[in-house]
TrEMBL record:
<dbReference type="GO" id="GO:0006046">
    <property type="term" value="P:N-acetylglucosamine catabolic process"/>
</dbReference>
<keyword id="KW-0413">Isomerase</keyword>
<dbReference type="GO" id="GO:0005975">
    <property type="term" value="P:carbohydrate metabolic process"/>
</dbReference>
<keyword id="KW-0378">Hydrolase</keyword>
<dbReference type="InterPro" id="IPR004547">
    <property type="entry name" value="Glucosamine6P_isomerase"/>
</dbReference>
<feature type="domain" description="Glucosamine/galactosamine-6-phosphate isomerase">
    <location>
        <begin position="35"/>
        <end position="252"/>
    </location>
</feature>
<protein>
    <submittedName>
        <fullName>Glucosamine-6-phosphate isomerase</fullName>
    </submittedName>
</protein>
<dbReference type="GO" id="GO:0006043">
    <property type="term" value="P:glucosamine catabolic process"/>
</dbReference>
<dbReference type="GO" id="GO:0016853">
    <property type="term" value="F:isomerase activity"/>
</dbReference>
<dbReference type="GO" id="GO:0019262">
    <property type="term" value="P:N-acetylneuraminate catabolic process"/>
</dbReference>
<dbReference type="GO" id="GO:0004342">
    <property type="term" value="F:glucosamine-6-phosphate deaminase activity"/>
</dbReference>
<dbReference type="InterPro" id="IPR006148">
    <property type="entry name" value="Glc/Gal-6P_isomerase"/>
</dbReference>
<dbReference type="Pfam" id="PF01182">
    <property type="entry name" value="Glucosamine_iso"/>
</dbReference>
<dbReference type="GO" id="GO:0042802">
    <property type="term" value="F:identical protein binding"/>
</dbReference>
<dbReference type="InterPro" id="IPR037171">
    <property type="entry name" value="NagB/RpiA_transferase-like"/>
</dbReference>
<dbReference type="GO" id="GO:0005737">
    <property type="term" value="C:cytoplasm"/>
</dbReference>
Length: 270
C-alpha cells in the first residue's frame, strides 16, 4: 500500500535568509490514485477508531473525490464512524450561499455529508454569503480555536502550489481571509461550473496558513502529471510564498501521498 520514502529538502532559503535543514518529508508513492484514496480513507477510519472525537480539516475540488467515495463505502460497511467527529472545511466561494448547488458546502453534501453519520451541528463551513467577509473569517477562526484546532488535515495542492485557497504571491496571511482567485485556480475549478470559467467566482474565503500549519497532522494528496511540478517544489524547493505549500516543510508532521505521475519529479532524488 504505497512506497514510503523520505526526501530531504534542498536549496533551503527565503528572502536571502538561510534556514537550518528540516527533517526529511515522508512521501508515499502509490501505483494509482484509487489505491491512494482507499489507503487514505482507511487511515481516516483508523484515526476515528483511536479518537472518535477527531477534528478533521477537509478540502474540496477533484483531488479528494475518491477519498470521499471510499469513506462512504467504509461507512456503509460499518467500518467508519463519524458520529462524534467534527469537521472544518477549508474554503468557500465568496457570494455563494450554502444551498447554491455550486457552493463548496453543496459539494460536500453531495459527496460526503449526506451519506455518513456526521452530526449537522459538528459540520463547520465558511459562509460565502455573509455580509461582512472579515467578520465571517474572524468567527470561523474563533470557532476552530474553540474546537481545539485540527487533529488531522487533508490537503490538496494546486498546480501553482496553493493550499486551500492560499494563492501564490509576495506574501501569505496567517488568519482566515478573503482572497482573489487566480485565473489558474479558477480554470481548475471550472469543471464544477459546467466547464465555464466565467461562472467561477472571482473571490473566496479561506483558512489562512496559520490555521493549516497548526494542524497536528497533515496528509497532502496529489494526483496526475499536472501536479508533478508543484509536488517537486513542495518537497525539494525553497520555502517561499510563491509556492505556499512549501511552508509545510517546516511543519514536522506532514505526509505527502502521491500517485506515480504526481511523484515523477522526485525520482532519483531520495
Amino acid at each position: 500500500m504505497g512506497d514510503s520514502r523520505l526526501y530531504a529538502p534542498r536549496g533551503i532559503g527565503y528572502a536571502g535568509v538561510h534556514l537550518t535543514p528540516r527533517p526529511a518529508l515522508n512521501v508515499r508513492v502509490f501505483a494509482s490514485e484509487l489505491e491512494a484514496a482507499a489507503a487514505c480513507a482507511a487511515h481516516i477510519a483508523e484515526a476515528l477508531r483511536e479518537k472518535p472525537s477527531l477534528v478533521l480539516g477537509l478540502p474540496t475540488g477533484r483531488t479528494p473525490l475518491n477519498v470521499y467515495r471510499q469513506m462512504v463505502a467504509l461507512h456503509q460497511r460499518g467500518e467508519l464512524d463519524l458520529s462524534r467527529a467534527t469537521t472544518f472545511n477549508l474554503d468557500e466561494f465568496l457570494g455563494l450561499p450554502p444551498d447554491d448547488p455550486c457552493s463548496l458546502r453543496a459539494y460536500m453534501d453531495r459527496h460526503l455529508f449526506r451519506h455518513v453519520n456526521l452530526a449537522p451541528e459538528r459540520v463547520h463551513f465558511l459562509d460565502g454569503s455573509a455580509e461582512r467577509a472579515e467578520w465571517e473569517c474572524a468567527r470561523y477562526d474563533a470557532r476552530l480555536t474553540q474546537a481545539g484546532g485540527l487533529d488531522l488535515l487533508l490537503l490538496g495542492i494546486g498546480s501553482n502550489g496553493l493550499v486551500a485557497f492560499n494563492e501564490a504571491g509576495d506574501s501569505l496571511q496567517a488568519a482566515s481571509h478573503r482572497v482573489r482567485l487566480s485565473r489558474e485556480t479558477r480554470l481548475g475549478m471550472a469543471s464544477f461550473f459546467g466547464d465555464d470559467v466565467s461562472k467561477v467566482p472571482l473571490a473566496a474565503l479561506t483558512l489562512g496558513m496559520g490555521s493549516l500549519f497548526q494542524a497536528r497532522r497533515v496528509i497532502l494528496l496529489a494526483f496526475g502529471v499536472r501536479k508533478a511540478a508543484a509536488v517537486t517544489a513542495l518537497v525539494r524547493g525553497p520555502i517561499t510564498s510563491h509556492c505556499p505549500a512549501s511552508l509545510l516543510q517546516l511543519h514536522g508532521n506532514v505526509e505527502v501521498w502521491v500517485d506515480t505521475e504526481a511523484g515523477r519529479g522526485l525520482e532519483g532524488t531520495g
